[in-house]
Description:
The protein has helices at residues 4-20, 26-72, 85-91, 94-102, 111-122, 125-131, 138-152, 157-164, 170-187, 205-220, 222-232, 243-258, 264-278, 283-300. By secondary structure, the chain is mainly α.
Amino acid sequence: MINRELIRIKAVQLTYAYFQNGNHNIDNAEKELMFSLTKAYHLYETLLLLIVAVTRMARKHYDIASAKAEREGSVGPIGRFAFNKFAVQLEENKQLREFAETQKNIWEDKAEFVKNLYLQMEQSEPYQEYITSDDDEYETHREVWRKLYKLFIQNNDDLCNTLEEDSIYWNDDKEVVDTFVLKTIKRFDPANGADQELLPEYTDEEDRVFAQQLFHAAIVNADQYQQYMTEASRNWDFSRLAYMDVVIMQLAIAEMLTFPNIPVNVTINEYVGLAKLYSTSRSGGYINGMLDAIARHLIDNGTLLKVMPEKPEKKEAKPKKTTKNKK
């Protein structure tokens, strides 16, 4: 689940923090990086547990309404959402239950938030269409949760504030992690029952190594990388760079030089995107030009053994033709 986009985000954040605080202990910094990535995976599991928590809240409301209807001799409530097939399978998932056992009432302590979230969902169009539908296919049960997640969980400021109480890391992670929760919902298969596999923390060991090597190289070689920036910035006002821009370029250079299989243009595009996210409004364009110049400089002097497309030659402007006035 932890992909390179998330690794780059974490590496930028923690490299910046490393150079901003006074205690430059690289071993502790590397442990902090790996811990923050593990916390991102915990967020993934926590958001899946939120689906379970909402389902249990729906079941509680259903039980209360059923008891009332029985006392009054009236028509009982519809229990379709409270016993949604996808949500029940998720609730029974062995891996998720193991994680839940290590947490201290992660959503039980936030019952009011969960209740309000459920009541909002209850009023929505996807919910109303779902509970009145006769379609009992598993896909229908799964699809309503995909829709509700996108509507009520994916972009929810109250949820972000609630999550921030549990981990300082999670707000920055949530946008990326949401995509993996939605991917997981789509992958659930009723045939797998409680043994349905969730996404692994890392797809393979290579991504874990990528995180460690990228972060280590950016810190250990910081002075050398900044020298490369200076050498390549003759036409740029390097002294006026925001410090976050320097950090982003350090990581980009580290990636260019440490990972021979990642094309230069891929690296540049990734870090330009991070500059737009974490630095000033002008940083994206500036860093794009700087990294292009740095990469070409390193290729020219043999430091970087990669190729880049030739820069298009600037066409000389043709003089405008003048026409004489006819007499």
